[in-house]
Write a structure and sequence with these properties.
92% helix, rod-shaped, mainly alpha, 0% strand, 7 helices
């Protein structure tokens, strides 16, 4: 008998314990505004004697709606986050590409600026060389104009002097021979010719004096002797004429050689200078064109660099805004999904209680529902 009573007591305790656990769980649900609202609806249906199956069906429908909302929320968030993450990836790639372009443009500007400076230095050197070479060519031409006409005039004077000297020697020989043979008329004619030679030497004296001081005493003495030829001085005049003729021939030979050497040097240097000038002018033009081209390229690159820096700043701003949008969307999703997850949890627990512990759940819903805290669990 006592054993039977003990078993009954234990069973009663277990039932009370189970009932207390269900009531505690439902009380927790009731403390949530949504849970309290659902329990109030359940209470109303129980008092209206709505069958438990219908109440459970209604609870399952509410759970299904919540899960559908949760799925829709997740789908919308996934689509939005995927879009935003894709935009973030594109912006990060754009920033990386733009950074590369900025580095490339910066290097290009530096290299082209350095080359422009080098080309400028080369242009200055070319222009200096061109100016000096043109000066050399000009001086060569001036020297030619001063040298060749003078040399030609000297050769003309020397040729005339040699011819006059040769004629004088011939007349002197005639004079000496005629004097020795007492040919007074012949000697007189030769004397007249010698006097004419004296005047010609007087005329040529300034020109011949340019070729050396050795002419001065010879010509002076010849002029003195031939102004009034005398038989006693004939041999001396003859010897002086021979000496003068030799000096004149040597001088003409030297002037001729100097003229030819000058012309050879002139004909060698002139084309060299002209070719050098032509080459330098081409280089000057090319360097000028290169500098102008580099100037335009640098200006274009600098404009592109400014544009890319602006693009970079815009991309960084867009990236920050997109990251902020994603963070805000994630925070909103977590808040909304957390709320829905809580509601789903409440519905699943209610359904479980009204499925597995119908009596206890119904008893709590009828007698204690909507009497708990209205705050969030």
């Amino acid at each position: 008998m006592r054993a039977t009573i003990a078993l009954i007591f234990v069973g009663m305790l277990a039932a009370v314990s189970a009932t207390s656990a269900v009531h505690a769980s439902l009380a927790q649900i009731n403390s949530h505004p949504f849970g309290a609202t659902i329990l109030t609806a359940v209470k109303a249906n129980l008092k209206a004697q709505t069958p438990i199956d219908e109440i459970t069906t209604l609870l399952n429908k509410i759970l299904a709606d919540l899960k559908r909302d949760r799925t829709a929320l997740q789908t919308e968030y996934d689509a939005n986050s995927n879009r935003l993450n894709s935009e973030i990836g594109d912006l990060e790639q754009l920033i990386e590409t733009t950074d590369g372009l900025i580095n490339q443009l910066t290097t290009e500007i530096t290299n082209k600026s350095n080359r422009k400076a080098e080309a400028g230095e080369e242009l200055v050197a070319v222009q200096e060389s061109l100016a000096s070479t043109r000066q050399l060519l000009e001086e060569l031409e001036i020297n030619y104009q001063n040298t060749i006409p003078d040399a030609d005039a000297d050769l003309e004077d020397l040729t005339a002097a040699i011819a006059a000297c040769q004629r004088a020697i011939a007349k002197m020989d005639t004079y000496i021979s005629a004097t020795a043979s007492s040919l007074i008329q012949v000697a007189s004619g030769a004397k007249t010719d010698l006097m004419a030679f004296s005047k010609e030497m007087e005329r040529l004296k300034p020109s011949l004096a340019r070729h050396g001081s050795q002419y001065t005493p010879i010509i002076h003495e010849l002029i003195a002797l031939t102004e009034n030829p005398e038989p006693s001085k004939a041999d001396k005049v003859r010897n002086l004429l021979a000496e003068l003729l030799e000096v004149l021939k040597q001088t003409k030979l030297q002037v001729t050689e100097d003229r030819e050497l000058f012309l050879e040097n002139y004909n060698t240097l002139k084309p060299q200078y002209q070719n050098k000038i032509q080459g330098l002018e081409v280089k000057e033009t090319n360097l000028g064109s290169e500098i102008n081209s580099l100037t335009n390229q640098i200006a274009s690159a600098q404009q592109s660099l400014a544009d890319e820096r602006e693009n970079l700043q815009e991309a960084k701003t867009d990236l920050q805004e997109t990251q902020n949008e994603l963070a805000a969307a994630t925070a909103a999703f977590e808040k909304a999904s957390g709320k829905l997850d809580k509601l789903i949890e409440i519905m699943e627990r209610l359904i479980e209680h009204f499925t597995s512990n119908v009596a206890e759940a119904s008893d709590y819903a009828v007698n204690a529902a909507n009497t708990g805290s209205a705050g969030l669990a």
